[in-house]
Amino acid sequence: MAYLEGVGIAPFQSVENAQRASFSILPDGIDPALLEELWRESDAAACGVAKSEFDQILQRVGTAQNYGLAEGETPSRRQQTAFFRGLKLADLVLARACASGKEPAWERFLALYRQPLVRAAIAITGGDTLGRDLADQLYAELFGLATRDGERRCPLDSYRGRGSLMGWLRTTLAQRHVDHHRRSHREQPLEEFDAPAPNPEPEKPLAELTVLGKAIEEAFRWQDAEDRFLLAAHYLDGRTLLEIGRVLAVHEATVSRRLRRATDGIRKQVLKNLQRSGMSRRAAEEALGTDPRDLDLNLKNLLQNSQSGAFQEKAAR
Amino acid sequence: MNPTTQFDLHPDAESLNAFVEQALPRRERARLLAHLADCGRCRQVVMLAQQAAANEEPAQVPAGSFAVRPDAWFRNWRLVWVPAAALAVVVALAFLVHLRQPRPGPELARFEPRPAPQIAANTAKPSLPERANAGRASSSASLASPRLSPGGESSVPAEAVSRPQAQENAAPAALGSEADAIEFRKTEPSVRVPPLGVSGASPQGFLEPETPAQFKPAPAVAAWEQQQRVESARRSQAVAARATQAKISDAAEHAQISRSLTAASPAPQFELKSASSASFKIAAQQPMAGVSVLRKAQMGRLPSGLTAVSSVTALHRTLAVDQAGTVFLSEDSGSHWEPIARQWAGRAVEVRLQQPWNSNAALAPIGGAAQDASKLGAVDGALQPAQVFEIVNDSDLTWVSADGRNWKAK
Lengths: 317, 410
What we know:
By secondary structure, chain A is mainly α. In chain A, 64% of the residues lie in helices and 1% in strands. Chain A is built from 15 helices and 2 strands. A two-stranded antiparallel ribbon of chain A has the order 1-2. In chain A, α7 runs antiparallel to α8 (128-142) and α10 (207-221) crosses α13 (252-276). The longest helix of chain A has 25 residues, at 252-276. Chain B is of the alpha+beta class and 410 residues long. In chain B, α1 crosses α3 (40-56). Chain B is elongated and about 115 Å long. The interface between A and B is large, with 67 and 59 residues.
């Protein structure tokens, strides 16, 4: 929720709902010449979208995101034009036309995205059968077979044209797959569940280990968001430098440098924290050589806790 | 699968996809990154989506990835304008400096610096009236510059002075006399010419820049154009009257002189261009003692496209070496050139004649010189001092040749 508050828009908020929000709307609408030009560029007529419908789509998308500006700002004509030109209008028109059930749009959608969607699903699931099942389920969703409160509900309505439609489809597939995996992973049969036996005599941690744990927690708390993302993706998720680099659009060598810098920074911060707690430099360095298994630390929790704190702090600014 | 799972807690596919495609604004990207650092589920979604995209289009770079990279030192292209503008200024300054550089004026002709042998004043018969007047003047008269009478008559006894001075004086005097054309005509064969190869008497050759005497008629052009207008009417009558007779006599004399000149020295013909692009044609068919007139247009550029750095002429052969060290031989006084195969070591830097000067030969009549030349030229392999070419390479070693084609080390 903190993310949603920070961005200023509900993640699955429909455009119609967003239009009802308090974003400013240009009173005189979109410039007719610009509208005509964008309508032609997006090839909206091929999807069965009239110019008036195209105008409504643009207005809804623009007001839903306040033309890319912060909340409360009034967009100028130039900002409005720049925002529309930054959108992938052809994909946006196609998605909206499909969501509204236009036959030419669906024909086009199937011609363009049928095979790529199946390939993406197979790549995501890692298997042909699972991939085709996933793609078929998503198709069912996209066709609007699901209804809520008696209304046909199409996920394509949530597409706002910032990225490509194919990327949006891939991400949606990934979301469905991850959610399915996480949910099914928790559904383990009881007979296979082997509860770990509790420790007969939990040893009291030494004072040094307690100080070390606190120093590490403190060091993680003030890590930069990107550093935490790198640490979590690399050390918790086991992602390679190449995968992380692709997501961040940087070279893997850059990811490696940043990771090293992050770990060095954490080490220095832990040393500082240890010295601040009364340890000498030498004792602090010796404490860093402690076997991690002796520490009662959950790095995942540490990252998440520190993340939450940092995010709330940024959100409060 | 439930499509609404945790939709209220995580960014939607639109935002995650925009993050993967680097299409988010900076502020929203930072927030999404912070969420990704916390949320393993969204990290997994992003990684899977990126992996699928990489499988689909392995070589595709995410659109806009360059523009919104948050940690790039060049956050945008505005910084690029600074070195680009500096480079443009430097180029513009260099261009202006290049434009303002004084260009060398039209180089008209150069004369050999060496003193000429004495020439009898009454042996030459200029074809122009002023020349005739000058020829009657006292041989002891020596003028540094041409004097023009108000009526346009030149009182300069051009042929009475020593040859370099006469050449300097006569050339401007002749400028503009006949429709911007100057002709030094040898009308009598009694002119004493230097011995064979006199044009290359200077070891440096007549293309060397240190030649002190330089003929620059450009300043005198205006004056002589005025003179031309005044005397043209009067002179045209006399010229017309003598034209037929002069042509006949000149033709006969010209043929004879050309033969002797070919044997004695190069008879280059070159074109002079003034600053106003007027073309002056000088037919230097008269071998002038101590003066070598070069074919600027032809000798300046050899077939290799390079400038000749040294050249020498003996008989009808002209040797020249260009800046690359290639030696060219011309059998027709520079009209056609052929490269000479390298028979020497190193790079040729100079061509010259072996015998720098022979006073006896220099004073010999041209007919005798021509005969001697033909005689010497007929002796193949006998390196006669007056016609033996020399090539000096960059190591100061010398090769000699009688015909300019076959060379042997000296």
